[in-house]
Amino acid sequence: MRSVRLSLGGVDILRGVDLDVAPTGCHVLIGPNGAGKTSLFNVASGQYKPTSGSVHFDGQDITRFAPHQRAQRRIARTFQVASLFRELSVEDNLRLAVQAPAPHLGKRTAAEVQDHMASLLETSGLQAKRHMTAGQLAYGEQRQLEIALGLANQPALLLMDEPMAGLTAQERQVLARRLDDLSQNIAVLMVEHHLEDALAIADQITVLYLGEAIFSGTADEVRAHPLVQKIYLG
């Protein structure tokens, strides 16, 4: 992202944000309430079009691309509230996602669809619960299923909106390990409200404050930055 500005209802929400996300690793957006985290995330996903500035992905200008057009270019997202077919089984949720058209994957055989679905079940830890409805899963398991759905079309970038929200401490640990595994091979850009969770899982952190990106760096660099300390610790 370059010089991204966003005005909504005459109010400046984002004020010239620059953001670079590496091809692999977990990049976390943090900041206090009202900092612009969700707005910047929505610009990345295509839900909001910036008032000015540009968004590029893999060498292509996607600033005006709708969310479905970004999905076709290997950008996937999860939502703060799990977006699932609650009355369908875990397996059927995944089958629908895996069967969705994906230009970069071409036409897949039934066997290829089945193999990919089986792989997603295994890596999500939901194989034993494949016949349960999504609504019967514990909340942390629903999060794991939504991540699996996001990975169905093998994205290069996975956008995650506060995936830790509402999870128990144990569920957060499970999800942190999952994110660590994922980010070895793809880029993960996520919004996180809690500083300590962000510091524990991020390879790179961007701190937003009053609509501006005030600092980007590693967890140790962010932890030591005086302005970040002032914002979070007073």
Instruction: Indicate the overall shape.
Output: globular
Neighbour order of strands in the largest sheet:
7-8-9-3-10-11
Distance between the termini: 30 Å
Query: Which structural class should the secondary elements be placed in?
Result: alpha/beta
CATH architecture of the largest domain: 3-Layer(aba) Sandwich
Strand tally: 11
Q: What is the helix content?
A: 25-40%
Number of domains: 2
Low-confidence stretches: none
What Rg do the Cα atoms give?
18 Å
CATH hierarchy class name of the largest domain: Alpha Beta
| Beta-strand residue percentage | 15-25%
Brief summary:
With 234 residues, the protein is α/β, with parallel strands linked by helices.
Molecular structure report:
With about 230 residues, this protein is α/β, with parallel strands linked by helices. The protein has two domains: about 1-75 and about 155-234, Rossmann fold (3-Layer(aba) Sandwich); about 85-155, no CATH class. About 35% of the residues lie in helices and about 25% in strands. It contains nine helices and eleven strands. The chain has helices at about 35-45, 65-70, 90-100, 110-125, 140-150, 170-180, 195-200, 220-225, 225-234, and strands spanning about 1-10, 10-15, 25-30, 50-55, 55, 60, 75-80, 155-160, 185-190, 205-210, 210-215. The strands form three sheets. It has a six-stranded mixed sheet with strand order 7-8-9-3-10-11, sandwiched between helices. The protein has a three-stranded antiparallel sheet with strand order 2-1-4, with no helix packed on it. Strand 8, helix 6 and strand 9 form a beta-alpha-beta unit. The longest helix is centred in the middle third of the chain and has 15 residues, at about 110-125. The radius of gyration is 18 Å and the shape is globular. The model has no long low-confidence stretch (mean pLDDT about 90).
